[in-house]
Design a protein that fits this description.
Blueprint: H1 16-19, E1 56-59, E2 67-69, H2 71-78, E3 84-87, E4 103-105, E5 110-113, E6 118-121, E7 126-129, E8 131-133, E9 137-143, E10 148-150, E11 157-158, E12 164-167, E13 178-185, E14 188-191, E15 195-200, E16 207-212, E17 217-219, E18 225-229, E19 238-244, E20 252-253, E21 271-279, E22 290-298, E23 312-319, E24 324-330, E25 339-343, E26 359-363, E27 374-376
Parallel strand pairs: 2-4, 6-15, 17-22
Antiparallel strand pairs: 1-3, 5-8, 7-12, 9-10, 9-13, 11-12, 13-14, 13-15, 16-18, 19-20, 19-21, 21-22, 23-24, 24-27, 25-26
């Protein structure tokens, strides 16, 4: 600030920089460091304006607001000429006014609400919250067993620099981690107590043993089924299964090994999913559903299909004095109206039925049929249409 005796042609040549760290009279001392506008001094006056020089200056304008804040805020206020009052009176006549707002540091933050311990199941979400008075900043820290380190936002953490730290889908590896928060302002910081995160393991879900068909695609109408390896873990838990044919909009319970109808699925969601979990536990964590088996359902041909050699196969034949039986398997998807003619005497001509030949005609039903579907037929003297049935029927040959 200005002093009573000056040198160097003051105020014409005097600047704050010229005063930086100097003593201009025997009664003056070097200015302290840190009170800067780029240097260590403030010049109360206007350079080259002699009338701006005053013998005395004091900080604090009773007409203005007080200053309460961190060090950088106080420095800015102290180096603002508008906050200084100057006159040319001789001490002790120069008296500081009373009741004026001056300046002071913001109190240190105070932790008024500590974070609480949290116990969750594996892959669940949780959060820790701290309450601190006077805080302008927060930094959460985690101790994974080797001391505390700052938490940074990631796919797992959010709110690392706020009053609430969120943990998303906590893995089992986080069990036993400690969390604390450092609340701060311009005057310093305060550290909360540490809270413990307990992550309990989920039961082990069942896994796929086998599925039918074993491939990923199946034609519309194909029966679907699956069996599973049992799950494990948990207290009093049982394995639970469900399936969906509409993309998860609805689910139905599933019994392992039973058939699921895929008829009409190709025109809808196009997929069938079976999910399983370890659930109904009497204590501890309940398992969550996981995908165990899936099929993409493809549409059948929309018109009659031309079959070639090798597109069907006989899967069984039995003969008794009263009845003959046979069944065949489709090796190709067929559309509605597809016909197959069978004879008991071999084809004597590829185009014409000969004497002694007895035949039966099978016709695919509306909607068609997928491949690898066994079809059992009764055989009569005359060619007839017969429906596909899901179980073996006798084939009778007339005299």
């Amino acid at each position: 600030m200005n002093v009573y005796d000056v040198t160097f042609g003051d105020p014409t040549t005097t600047t704050a920089a010229a005063w930086d760290g100097t003593a201009n009279t025997a009664s003056a001392s070097a200015l302290p460091t840190g009170l800067t506008t780029g240097v260590n001094a403030i010049w109360i006056g206007t350079q080259s304006v002699p009338a701006s020089e005053f013998s005395n200056s004091r900080y604090g304008n009773c007409a203005g607001p007080g200053t309460l804040g961190p060090i950088n805020t106080l420095r800015a206020a102290l180096n603002n000429q508008a906050n200084w009052i100057s006159d040319n009176s001789t001490p002790p006549g120069f008296v500081l006014a009373t009741g004026c707002p001056y300046m002071g540091l913001v109190p240190l933050p105070g932790i008024t609400g500590q974070p609480s311990n949290s116990a969750i199941c594996e892959l669940a979400n949780t959060s820790f919250t701290v309450t601190a008075s006077g805080a302008t900043g927060y930094q959460w820290q985690v101790d994974q067993g080797a001391g505390f380190n700052n938490v940074t936002n990631s796919a797992t953490y959010s709110g690392a620099t706020t009053a609430t730290l969120n943990i998303n889908a906590a893995p089992l590896a986080f069990n036993g981690y400690l969390y604390r928060c450092i609340a701060s302002n311009g005057s310093g910081s305060a550290t909360s107590n540490a809270a413990t995160l307990t992550v309990n393991a989920l039961p082990v879900a069942p896994t796929l043993l086998a599925k039918t068909p074993s491939v990923i695609t199946a034609a519309d109408g194909t029966p679907l089924s699956a069996t599973f390896n049992a799950g494990s873990g948990g207290t009093g838990c049982t394995d639970d299964y469900r399936y969906t044919t509409d993309g998860g909009a609805t689910y139905l319970p599933y019994t392992p090994g039973s058939n699921i109808s895929s008829t009409g699925v190709a025109a809808g969601s196009g997929f069938v999913f079976i999910e399983g979990r370890r659930a109904a536990c009497s204590a501890g964590c309940q398992g969550t559903y996981t995908l165990l088996a899936a099929w993409r359902i493809t549409p059948l041909p929309v018109a009659a299909t031309t079959l070639n050699a090798g597109d069907i196969a006989f899967s069984g034949y039995a003969s008794t004095p009263a009845t003959d039986e046979f069944s065949f398997v489709l090796l190709k998807h067929v559309g509605p109206g597809t016909t197959i003619n069978f004879t008991d005497n071999g084809w004597l001509s590829t185009n014409t039925l000969q004497g002694g030949e007895q035949t039966v005609t099978w016709t695919a039903p509306a909607g068609g049929l997928p491949e690898v579907l066994k079809s059992k037929l009764p055989v009569l003297l005359l060619p007839v249409q017969v429906p596909v049935l899901p179980e073996q029927l006798p084939v009778r040959r007339s005299a």
